[in-house]
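Researcher: I'd like a structural prediction for the single chain below. Treat it as a standalone chain; there are no partners to consider.
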Amino acid sequence: MDLGRVATAMVTPFQEDGDIDFEAVEKLIEHLISNGTDSIVVCGTTGETPTLTKEEKLKLIQFTVEKVNKRVPVIAGTGSNDTKGTIEMTKKVESLGVDGVMLVAPYYNKPNQRGLYAHFEAVAKETALPIVLYNVPGRTSSNIEAATTIALSKIPNIQVVKEASGNLDQMAEILATTDDNFFVYSGDDALTLPLLAIGGKGVISVASHVVGNEMQAMIRAFEEGRLEAAAKMHQALLPLFKQLFKCPNPVPVKYALGKVGFSVERVRLPLVEMTEEEKRQFDEVWEQVKQSI
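Model: Treating it as a single chain, here is the predicted structure.
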């Protein structure tokens, strides 16, 4: 499964009453496709999935598939900390026309490596869909170690890992030991270029909501051997990447979308919107970055 170079983990816009704002979702989809997004991940962490009901998730996934209309791949986040529940959700989205599913490492339970392998293996056996493993220790409290990812890569429909461990050594080990048809994507915007340099495929991005074309330009420069230009673009974008995670994701990127014409700042509790001082700091970095790219 090829997600392209830049996949976007899409935010979920909310109305004033807290319901999903599907009109804004449709406009956001068009914006992403027009601005550097090669594929869309719906119902990931950035989509505030922990606060969405199962019914809301299914409705949002179906809506996204319909509006994208096969222009780019759509990957649905169906993972949870309950293997049975993950299998049930994965089976439900099969009929909605998604191109694959993303499965986060089970959170809170803190399974060992045997438990992680058994969880993903059990889900893979129950679906024909391509699977993206999602390793994000900062949120799950467990790291999918390189050896476990390598073993899981031998299961035919487990084809991608989104590595948000921040551990380039671990990513390098996975790349060195898996087949060429198994892809490693960065889960951190700031590691996009470093991961490409060691053989990674691309990024499942937050920043691409607002700088998707610029990220594509950076990647294109790298692929064309213009390494100095790629490095300069990385350096110019890095302050924005950092600012987008100064508050819990997706709070800053929802605010940032206001800079490109989207009023989607609302988040669901327990997340809260940025303070005026946090917005001021973000605005300062935003202006600096826009002048340098």
